[in-house]
Design goal:
Layout: H1 6-13, E1 20-26, E2 31-34, E3 37-40, H2 51-54, E4 71-74, E5 79-81, H3 83-90, H4 93-97, H5 99-110, E6 129-132, E7 138-142, E8 147-151, E9 167-172, H6 177-195
Antiparallel strand pairs: 1-2, 1-4, 2-3, 4-5, 5-9, 6-7, 7-8, 8-9
Helix pairs in contact: 3-6, 5-6
Amino acid sequence: MSQLPQYYEYLARNGERSDTHPFKYIEEEANFNIGSLAIPVLEFDPYTFTPFDFGIDYEGIPVEEMPDHPALLTSMSRIIGGPKLHDWVKTNQVAVSETYLVMASVYKKFVPKLTKKLSKRSTSLWGFNSGLTRAGDIHLQVMGDCACSGPDPDGDVIDGLNEAGYSAYYLHNTDTQAQRTSLYAGLGHLARLASDSPYSP
């Protein structure tokens, strides 16, 4: 088994499952794939999602399968990016920088009357942007007052910004479903791209 964060090593030693589900966003279908389930983008909100509402097994996949997936959604609706995602983004920075277009498209599904031109990257803290930080971490931003997502330095299941190649992503200043779901679509889009690429740890 690949190295895992300490919390998940503990679960594996005790014969428990991971409480996580493979997570992707399929742009052309406007669906989130959570495990084998497809959820339409307009029906998904990270703040209200629970596996029970969709008939998803709360215990999730076996811990040993976590490294096989670029991103995972916990049963408490937190995204965990794994080594497969983080290694992929380092060599595909153009795709990361273009992810803001996917987030803008999702945002517009919630706010169809939005007149602001969304095809241009924002240079401020109030618009759509995507890329890697100087440290190489994924940073995504949507319309709002610094409505963004990146690795959480104070995660509950991941120690620090990155542990054994895994990061837990948090939401910052996301007051609306449009903001939250758009950011999750950005991470899910990158996970989908990474899952479609060959990978060797």
